[in-house]
Amino acid sequence: MQPRLHHPWPEDEAAALALQRQLAGQVERHDRLDDIRLVAGLDVAYDEHSDRLVAAAVVLDAHTLVVVEQAVAVDVARFPYIPGLFSFRELPPLVQALGRLSLRPDLIVCDGQGIAHPRRFGLACHVGLLFDVPSIGCGKTRLLGQHDQAGPERGDSTPLRDGDDIIGSALRTQRGIKPVYVSTGHRIALPTACHWITRLCSKYRLPETTRMADQLVRREMAAGLGGRKED
DNA sequence: GCGACAG
DNA sequence: ATCTTGTCGC
After folding, report:
1. Which of A7, A27, A104, A162 is in the most buried spot, having the most CB atoms within 10 Å?
2. Distance in angstroms: CA A32, C1' C3
3. Which residue's CA lies closest to nucleotide B5 at its C1' atom?
4. What's the CA A220/C1' C5 distance, rounded, in angstroms?
5. What is the reported pTM?
6. Which domains does chain A have, with CATH numbers?
7. For binding Mg(2+), which residues are annotated in this chain's numbering (predicted)?
């Protein structure tokens, strides 16, 4: 699977901000979905002693949640971690990993925010837009916004608000467990996104997609501790 | 100026 | 993100 949209890579923070403001206008916040048969999960791991990043893309059967394909990529960080500019750090290796998939997923779940972002352009929006695939942001913590306490049952949620805007949901994916932050990435409405995340969190707090991707990047990081700088 | 701040 | 396995508690 290759990107369908290309844009110049920003050289500095100011260019990255300008690019986000421009691309944010192209994000689609409503459902424009095909039958969802394949769901991909993405994750990135960091090596604290070098500047290496390992990215993974794992494709699951959307019905059985069985892994059907996976790919990894190693890269060197080209952008520092700056809250709000997260995608410019993680996107390069993620694009490589996604490019190594033979299957084209019908939905992508990202570890981070979608439009629950200062400029409404989190990592999930960026990935979804580049590949023109419906995408969801599912973060473990909040970047922006306020919310009430979500109900205690699996599937309960409460709106995440930034002023008058509803930018996402705090979603309880297991009974009595701390909620996750769900937001539209691209081509999927918030309620639909919450349904899918709930479905993907079949046994744990986090979606199986991100869990599988997380396990893969960790294995890969451990396996490549003394070698490859990138690939 | 102070606090917040995805991974 | 990362340091980190078993262990205390409901």
Report:
1. A27
2. 43
3. A83
4. 21
5. 0.96
6. 36-223 (3.30.2170.10)
7. 43, 111
